[in-house]
Design a protein that fits this description.
The chain is α/β, with parallel strands linked by helices. The protein folds into two domains: 153 residues, P-loop containing nucleotide triphosphate hydrolases (Rossmann fold, 3-Layer(aba) Sandwich), CATH 3.40.50; 111 residues, Zinc Finger, Delta Prime, domain 3, CATH 1.20.272. Helix content is 55%, strand content 8%. It has 15 helices and five strands. Helix 10 runs antiparallel to helix 11. It binds zinc ion. Zinc ion binds next to helix 3.
Length: 313
Amino acid sequence: MIVHQSYAQRFLKKVREGSLTYPLLLSGPQGIGKRSSVIQLAREIWCEADSTKQGCECSSCYQIRQNTFPDLTILTPEGGQNYGVDVIRKLIGTITDMPTYGSVRLVVIDSVEAMTNEASNAFLKCLEEPPSHIRFLLLTSNMSEVIPTIRSRCGLVPFDKLPFDFVRKLVLTLTQDESTVDTYVRMGAGSAGRSLRYAINNTLMVRDQVLTILENSSKKQILRCFSALEDTDASPELLFDLLEQLAGDLIKVAVGAGTLTHADQKDTLKALAQTKDLAFWYSWYHEIESIMRSNGAPKLQIKYLISQLAKSV
Ligand SMILES: [Zn+2]
């Protein structure tokens, strides 16, 4: 059941009814319901029993869940890699196949921004004039990285942030600790998937370790704390997210405005913000953002970002 996405649902309904045939680009943060909306659309088109029923056992719903339904193709980048031209050529090779069950085939490309230049060029030709039975649904969590030529050929369908209370109820099913729930909800910034992932990974424990590192000003201490952090099994992606959020909060504290994501650590953040000037926090924030977009060795990059705090003491 998809909730709180009435704008996007209007578009998907038109695809289901057959009155909308051009490619759609579904955008919004990870974990906001883009992929589940597409799966639900597929079930509404092909379910042989009751598509409103969760866990419907009809043959179509079963195959859709297993990702083996012949008229539904979902591409996902493997291991965080870009789609190479081979993958896209293979897709184009199957696109003229007629539907097995009805009159349409859905082709879903998750993280559509993750294509090599060669792959994008091959895909564009196909996106311009797809066969009449093909419905393209392209998904992205990074709208700014989708190339303009792909964007301009699609109807744009932004997904709304989910309401605070709705996400809060979901997080409460995972953790009973009332003191952490609100922070997890804020960290997700409107994405239920992100909030749940943070809660499952017990991210606030890692956050507190990161704050301890940031609070220690001597280089020696920072490096010692850093090796403690390396012993946790927190993924680099999660650590980057945390650093970005903390840097954002430090800027807010320094300028004295805005709602803190990590409001439960307000005093620590205040003390920390005072150790540097605002310009430092701005440049640190931008550095984190640009490193997150690059493809270097994550552990070294995190070490570098944290050691910057020591260097300028
Ligand atoms: Zn069904």
